[in-house]
C-alpha cells in the first residue's frame, strides 16, 4: 500500500521538499536557472547604474564582444563534459587565423582556400591533442599546455611576429583582408551582428551534438564514468579525440570572427581567452570534472563575462581593477552555484 | 512483537526518535525510532530503498536528518558531520568502499588520525605498527605497504573495516560488510564483532543474508518503505517471519527457477588462457544457465573479462553461435552478442546521468535515426524496462545516483537486456541486493533463458547457484577443477572441488 502512495506522490511531481506551489516555482528557477539569474541581476543592476547600458548600440557591442569567447567556450564545453580541459583553444585560434590571413594576403589565395586552411589547421591541432592524450596516455592538461605553446610558436614563425596584414605588408602587397572576413567579424545582418549569429550557429551545432547524437551521449558517459562507458562498448579514445577535434574546429571559427573584427590576424591574438572560455563554461554550470553541463549554460556564462566587462567599462572602472573584479566574480558565482546545488539537489 | 529491552536491561546508548528524511521524490525515512543498547549487535533489515543506508548515514553524521531527535547517553545531540559523529565514538563502514586507492593499506587504516612525532611530522613507523596491530586483530594477513588499489574487493572491504576499528568506536555501523567477503573472512569478521560486543560496543549491522542475523544478531529491526515495521529479539525471529516483514507479503520462492528448453551451444570456450586462467574450456547452450563457482582468486572475474575483451587472451578460442570471435574491446564483445553485468555496479553505471541514458548506453546505435538519437524511442524502451524490472521509484529523469543499490543493479541489468544479447555474463548479480529483489532478478534470468539466451552466472553464493544453475563449473587456481550437473551438485562437492587438491595434484606438489 505504502509503495503505491509514494508512487503517485512521485508521478504527480509534488515538490520534493514539501514546499507550497509558489515556492516550488522559485525553487525550480533556483534549481535550473542559476546562471540566468546571475545574468539578469547583473543586467538589472547595470541598467540602473548606467544610462548607456540598455541601449541598442551597447547591447550589440556586448554580443559582438562575447561572440568569440562564446564560440571557443562551446568547444571547451564539449571537452570539459568529457572530463578533459583544453588549454590550447586560444593558441589554436591564433594559429588558424594566422594561417588563413597569411594564405590570403601573402600567398594570394582565394578567401575560401584561406578559410578552409584555417579550419583544417584548427581541427588538426585539436585532433592531435586528442591523439596525444589517448595514445600517449598523458593528462589532458599537459598535452594541451604543450599545444598552447607549440601553436603560438608556429603562428609566430608563419607571421614573422607581425600582424597580417600589417601596415607595412598591406601597402606593399594586397590592401586588406577580404570583405567576407571583415563582414564576419564586424558586419550586420538583419540588424544583428554577424559575429553573434556565428556564435549562435556554433552553439546550436554544439547543442545538437551534445544532446542529440551518439557522440554527445558518449561524451557525457565518458565524463561521468569512463570505465562504465568503456564496459558499455563505447570507444572512449575515439570520443575523446572527436571532442578535441571539435574544440579545435570551433577555435578556428572563433579565429575567423576575431580576425574580421580586428581587421587583421596576429600570432598572439586572444591571449588569455583559453581561461575566459573555461570561466564561461564553469559559470554556465558545467561540472569541471566532467559528466554534466550544457551549451546553453555556457552561452549564458559567456554573456555574464561580456556584460561584466562592458559594465565595468561603462562605470569607468580602471582596466587594472577590472581584472580583479572579474576574478572575484568568477569564484564567487561558482561558490554560490555549488552551494545552491548541494542545497537543492539532495545528497 | 516486543519493542525495546526488558526492564533489567541497561539504558540505551543511542536513541532515535521520529527520524524523517526526504530526498527529491522520496520519503526515505518516515518517523523511524531505534534504540541501541551497549554490547548488542542490532541487525537492520529491509529491502532496497527501505531506508537502511539512509538511517545509518544519519547516525554516522554523513547526511543530516530533516526532523526527529537523536540522544546519545540520554543527551540530545545534533550529528552535523562525520568528524563530529566520529569524535562521539560513532564509526561507519560503508557499503560502497571509500578507500584511497593510491595509498597503502597502512595509510588507509590510519587515514585522518595519523600518529605524530614531536614537531608535527607523521610517525611512519607508528603508522605501520598501528595498521599491523589492527590487521592482526582482524586476522587479516595483508601487507600494510601494498597500495589498496591492487587489492581485491574483499580485501579492500577488510581494510575499510580495519580503518573504522582503529578508531576505537562505541557504536559501529556496518552497511553490508559481508557482501564481498568469502566464507572464511566472514567468520573472522563475526569473531571480531563478537569481541567488540563483549567490550560493550553497540554494533548496527545490515545484510541481505538472513542467516547472518541469527548467527550474529541480538535484536532485529525491520524497515519497509522508510517506516519501521518492528524490532524483535533475533531468538524469536525466523526467516519466513523476517521476509514477510520486509516485503509485506508472502514470498513463495526465494530463488525461482524456470524450466527453459536447452538448445545448441551459444558460447564455447576452448583452452582459454588469459591472465591467471590456464586452459579453461566450457560450453553454454541456448536457454542454459551455467554457474561458475570458485574462491577468490580462482579466476572467475578474469574469465568474464577475457570473454568481454577487457583482458588480453593469450591462447585458446571463443566461439559465439559456432563462429570464432576474439574480442579486443567491449565493443567487439557486444557486437558478437555478449553482455556483461560487472561485479561492481558502479563500474557499469554513469550515476550522474538519469535512468534513460544509462539503460540505452550499450545500444546507442539502435536509437540513431539520420545521425541523431531518437529520444522518444529511448524513453519508450527505458520505460518498458523500468516497469518490467519494477525499478523504484519509476522516475526516468532521475539520476541513477539517487537510487538504492538494488534498484541501481536493476538499471544495470536493463542496460544489457536492451541489447538482446546471445550470451549474458552475470558477475555476482545479487551482491548487495535484498531478498525481494534477488527473487526478481532470478525470475528475470529465468525469462531470459526461456527466450534462448545463454547465461553464465559467476557467483560465490552457493545456495543461489545450487538453486538456479543447470550446470556448475568450478574453477580453482585458474583451471576448471570440476563440472556438475543439476542434481549431482551439492554444497560439499562444490567446495571440495574449489578448495581441495586432488590426490594426484597433492602428490605432485609433494
Entry summary:
With 347 residues, chain A is mainly α.
Explained architecture:
The complex is a heterodimer of chains A (347) and B (510). Chain A has 347 residues and is mainly alpha-helical. Chain A has helices at 2-11, 21-32, 34-49, 56-81, 89-105, 111-135, 140-159, 167-172, 179-186, 194-212, 214-224, 226-231, 236-262, 273-283, 295-314, 319-344, and strands at residues 188-189, 192-193. Chain A is built from 16 helices and 2 strands. Chain A starts with a helix and ends with a helix. The model of chain A is unreliable at 1-19 (pLDDT under 50). Chain B has 17 helices and 22 strands. Chain B has helices at residues 52-59, 82-87, 105-109, 124-138, 153-165, 183-198, 210-216, 239-247, 300-307, 330-335, 355-360, 375-388, 405-418, 435-450, 462-468, 491-499, 503-509, and strands spanning 14-23, 26-36, 41-45, 67-72, 75-77, 90-93, 171-175, 202-206, 219-224, 227-233, 265-274, 277-285, 289-293, 315-320, 323-325, 338-341, 368-369, 372-373, 423-427, 454-458, 471-476, 479-485. A 6-stranded mixed sheet of chain B has the order 6-7-8-3-9-10, with helices on both faces. The N and C termini of chain B lie far apart (59 Å). Chain A binds chain B through residues 2-3, 6-7, 9-11, 16-18, 208, 212-214, 217-218, 220-221, 224-225, 227-235, 287, 291-292, 345-347, and chain B through 22-27, 63, 224-225, 227, 248, 308, 310, 329-331, 333-335, 340, 342, 346-353, 357, 361-362, 364-365, 368, 371-373, 375, 392-395, 402, 415.
Amino acid at each position: 500500500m505504502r509503495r503505491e502512495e509514494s508512487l503517485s506522490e512521485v508521478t504527480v511531481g509534488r515538490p520534493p521538499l514539501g514546499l507550497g506551489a509558489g515556492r516550488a516555482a522559485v525553487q525550480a528557477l533556483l534549481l535550473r536557472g542559476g546562471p540566468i539569474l546571475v545574468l539578469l541581476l547583473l543586467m538589472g543592476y547595470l541598467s540602473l547604474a548606467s544610462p548607456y547600458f540598455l541601449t541598442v548600440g551597447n547591447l550589440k557591442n556586448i554580443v559582438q564582444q562575447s561572440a568569440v569567447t562564446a564560440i571557443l567556450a562551446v568547444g571547451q564545453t564539449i571537452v570539459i563534459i568529457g572530463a578533459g580541459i583544453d588549454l590550447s583553444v586560444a593558441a589554436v585560434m591564433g594559429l588558424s587565423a594566422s594561417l588563413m590571413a597569411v594564405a590570403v594576403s601573402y600567398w594570394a589565395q582565394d578567401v575560401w582556400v584561406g578559410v578552409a586552411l584555417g579550419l583544417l589547421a584548427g581541427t588538426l591541432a585539436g585532433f592531435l591533442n586528442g591523439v596525444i592524450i589517448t595514445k600517449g596516455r598523458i593528462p589532458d592538461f599537459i598535452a594541451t599546455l604543450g599545444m598552447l605553446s607549440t601553436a603560438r610558436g608556429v603562428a609566430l614563425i608563419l607571421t614573422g611576429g607581425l600582424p597580417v596584414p600589417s601596415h607595412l605588408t598591406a601597402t606593399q602587397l594586397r590592401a586588406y583582408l577580404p570583405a567576407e572576413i571583415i563582414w564576419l567579424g564586424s558586419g550586420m545582418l538583419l540588424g544583428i551582428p554577424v559575429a553573434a549569429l556565428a556564435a549562435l550557429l556554433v552553439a546550436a551545432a554544439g547543442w545538437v551534438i551534445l544532446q542529440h547524437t551518439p557522440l554527445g551521449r558518449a561524451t557525457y558517459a565518458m565524463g561521468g564514468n569512463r570505465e562504465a562507458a568503456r564496459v558499455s562498448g563505447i570507444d572512449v579514445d575515439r570520443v575523446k579525440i572527436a571532442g578535441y577535434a571539435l574544440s579545435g574546429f570551433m577555435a578556428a571559427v572563433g579565429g575567423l570572427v576575431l580576425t574580421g573584427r580586428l581587421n587583421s590576424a596576429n600570432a598572439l591574438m586572444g591571449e588569455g581567452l583559453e581561461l575566459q572560455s573555461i570561466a564561461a563554461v564553469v559559470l554556465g554550470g558545467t561540472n569541471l570534472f566532467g559528466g554534466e553541463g550544457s551549451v546553453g549554460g555556457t552561452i549564458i556564462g559567456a554573456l555574464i563575462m561580456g556584460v561584466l566587462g562592458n559594465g565595468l567599462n561603462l562605470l569607468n572602472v580602471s582596466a587594472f581593477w577590472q581584472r580583479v573584479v572579474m576574478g572575484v566574480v568568477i569564484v564567487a558565482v561558482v561558490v554560490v552555484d555549488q552551494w545552491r546545488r548541494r542545497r537543492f539537489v539532495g545528497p | 512483537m516486543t519493542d525495546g529491552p526488558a526492564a533489567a536491561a541497561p539504558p540505551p546508548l543511542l536513541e532515535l526518535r521520529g527520524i524523517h528524511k526526504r530526498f527529491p521524490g522520496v520519503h526515505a525515512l518516515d518517523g523511524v525510532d531505534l534504540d541501541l543498547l551497549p554490547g548488542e549487535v542490532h541487525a537492520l533489515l529491509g529491502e532496497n530503498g527501505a531506508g537502511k543506508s539512509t538511517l545509518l548515514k544519519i547516525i554516522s553524521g554523513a547526511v543530516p536528518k530533516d526532523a526527529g531527535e537523536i540522544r546519545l547517553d540520554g543527551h540530545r545531540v545534533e550529528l552535523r558531520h562525520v568528524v563530529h559523529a566520529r569524535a562521539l565514538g560513532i564509526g561507519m563502514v560503508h557499503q560502497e568502499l571509500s578507500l584511497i586507492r593510491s595509498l597503502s593499506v597502512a595509510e588507509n587504516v590510519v587515514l585522518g588520525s595519523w600518529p605524530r612525532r614531536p614537531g608535527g611530522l607523521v610517525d611512519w613507523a607508528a603508522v605501520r605498527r598501528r595498521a599491523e596491530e589492527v590487521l592482526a586483530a582482524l586476522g587479516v594477513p595483508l601487507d600494510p605497504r601494498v597500495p589498496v588499489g591492487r587489492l581485491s574487493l574483499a580485501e579492500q572491504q577488510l581494510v575499510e573495516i580495519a580503518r573504522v576499528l582503529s578508531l576505537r568506536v562505541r557504536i559501529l555501523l556496518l552497511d553490508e560488510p559481508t557482501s564481498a567477503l568469502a566464507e572464511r573472512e566472514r567468520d573472522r569478521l563475526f569473531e571480531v564483532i563478537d569481541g567488540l560486543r563483549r567490550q560493550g560496543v553497540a554494533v548496527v549491522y545490515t545484510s541481505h543474508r538472513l542467516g547472518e542475523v541469527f548467527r550474529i544478531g541480538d535484536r532485529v529491526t525491520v524497515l519497509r518503505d522508510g517506516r519501521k515495521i518492528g524490532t524483535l529479539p533475533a531468538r524469536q525471529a525466523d526467516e519466513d517471519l523476517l521476509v514477510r516483514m520486509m516485503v509485506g507479503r508472502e514470498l513463495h520462492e526465494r530463488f525461482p527457477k524456470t524450466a527453459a528448453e536447452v538448445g545448441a551451444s551459444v558460447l564455447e570456450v576452448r583452452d582459454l588462457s588469459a591472465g591467471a586462467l590456464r586452459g579453461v574450456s566450457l560450453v553454454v547452450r541456448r536457454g542454459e544457465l551455467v554457474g561458475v563457482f570458485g574462491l577468490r582468486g580462482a579466476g572467475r572475474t578474469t574469465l568474464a573479462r577475457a570473454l568481454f575483451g577487457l583482458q588480453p587472451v593469450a591462447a585458446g578460442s571463443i566461439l559465439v553461435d559456432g563462429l570464432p570471435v576474439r574480442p579486443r574491446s567491449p565493443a567487439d564483445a557486444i557486437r558478437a552478442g555478449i553482455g556483461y553485468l560487472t561485479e561492481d555496479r558502479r563500474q557499469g553505471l554513469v550515476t550522474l546521468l538519469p535512468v534513460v541514458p544509462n539503460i540505452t548506453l550499450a545500444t546507442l546505435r539502435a536509437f540513431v535515426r539520420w545521425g541523431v538519437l531518437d529520444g522518444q524511442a529511448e524513453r519508450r524502451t527505458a520505460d518498458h524496462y523500468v516497469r518490467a524490472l519494477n525499478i523504484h521509484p519509476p522516475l526516468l529523469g532521475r539520476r541513477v545516483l539517487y537510487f538504492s543499490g538494488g534498484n541501481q543493479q536493476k538499471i544495470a541489468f536493463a542496460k544489457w537486456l536492451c541489447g538482446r544479447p546471445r550470451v549474458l555474463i552475470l558477475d555476482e548479480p545479487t551482491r548487495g541486493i535484498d531478498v525481494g529483489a534477488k527473487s526478481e532478478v532470478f525470475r528475470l534470468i529465468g525469462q531470459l533463458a526461456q527466450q534462448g539466451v545463454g547465461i553464465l552466472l559467476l557467483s560465490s553464493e552457493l545456495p543461489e547457484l545450487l538453486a538456479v544453475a543447470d550446470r556448475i563449473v568450478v574453477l580453482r587456481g585458474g583451471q576448471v577443477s570440476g563440472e556438475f550437473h543439476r542434481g549431482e551438485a551439492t554444497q560439499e562437492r562444490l567446495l571440495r572441488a574449489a578448495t581441495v587438491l586432488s590426490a594426484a595434484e597433492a602428490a605432485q606438489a609433494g
